[in-house]
Amino acid sequence: MTRPPFLFRRSPAEGLDLTGKDRASFLQGLCTNDVKALSPGSFLWAAALSPVGKVLFPFRVARREDRLSLFLSGSMAAGAAAHFRKYAVFQDARVAEWPAMMRFDFFGGLPSDPAPEGAELWPAFFEVAGTWTTSAASADAIERSLSTLARPIEPEEAEALRIEAGRPEAGREIDATRTPDEAGLSEAISTTKGCYVGQEIVARLRTSGRLPRRLVRLRFDGAETPPLPSELHRSGDPSSSAGWVTSAALSVRTGAVVGLGFAARDVEDGATVEIRSAPHLRATIERIERR
């Protein structure tokens, strides 16, 4: 059977638009990456932090002609809008949630035809070859058109691709208990921009080089998926604590389960770990190398 040129996934899209003459400087002081360096049509990965340097929410930001467009994961738009509005009182910066929108994520390639009229293209991001965001009203017609060319991706297949790409997800690897470096957001942090909320903590932890744990990939021995989240211990040492598994899925490519999770600082790459609640499930710790 011939594999289609791409796979796609349809899901709700959430985001914010920032307008007003101060929008760039406003966002610059509230996120981890250098928004002022954005050229038209380009995008950055960034995160908003609490004053103590913990991740509130990650997002992608694109510079459009008349606004900054923030693409969020999951059901985060209302909370993100409230967060930004707290700081917008004395600046010419307005925060608006997107109306009802849908997103089409593509895997393995992109459609040969350009994005439909009214849709906005978001470039490749980890395992996703590209994304269209479009109005909810036009989504059914777009899906019918795409279905003549390719098939929707299965949820577990998409999850395995995310894990294999090493992309942390809000609500799994990213939450308000973790710093951005700990949660695998190092590419979302500028080391040259000025101050932003939480920056002092991020800089201090980077200077000390002593993160309590790090994001890792786990290669399991078989096809049984562990319960989530699960605590890890070192192989043969049930009394030890090695970290946690936060995501897991069966890889179509390898036929075995792959996971993301956090390894304690003293757990080395290549170490074998076991699930505390199911010791027969063993995995190897892998460093996440991103291209």
CATH fold-type name of the largest domain: Gyrase A, domain 2
Question: Structural class of the secondary elements?
Answer: alpha+beta
CATH superfamily of the largest domain: Probable tRNA modification gtpase trme, domain 1
Estimate the strand proportion. 25-35%
CATH architectural type of the largest domain: 2-Layer Sandwich
CATH class membership of the largest domain = Alpha Beta
Helix/strand order, N-terminal first? EHEEEHEEEEHEHHEEEEEE
Give average pLDDT, whole number: 94
Using DSSP, what is the number of strands? 15
Q: What characteristic shape results from the CA principal axes?
A: flat
Work out the helicity level.
Answer: 10-25%
Residue stretches low in confidence (pLDDT < 50, at least 5 long) are none
**What is the rounded Rg?**
20 Å
Summarize the biggest pleated sheet.
9 strands, mixed
Number of domains: 2
Specify the number of helices.
5
Topology overview:
Layout: E1 7-19, H1 23-28, E2 43-49, E3 55-63, E4 68-72, H2 77-87, E5 94-97, E6 101-107, E7 120-122, E8 130-135, H3 136-147, E9 151-152, H4 155-165, H5 199-208, E10 213-220, E11 230-234, E12 243-250, E13 257-264, E14 272-275, E15 278-286
Parallel strand pairs: 1-9
Antiparallel strand pairs: 1-4, 1-5, 1-6, 2-3, 3-4, 6-8, 7-8, 10-13, 10-15, 11-12, 11-14, 12-13, 14-15
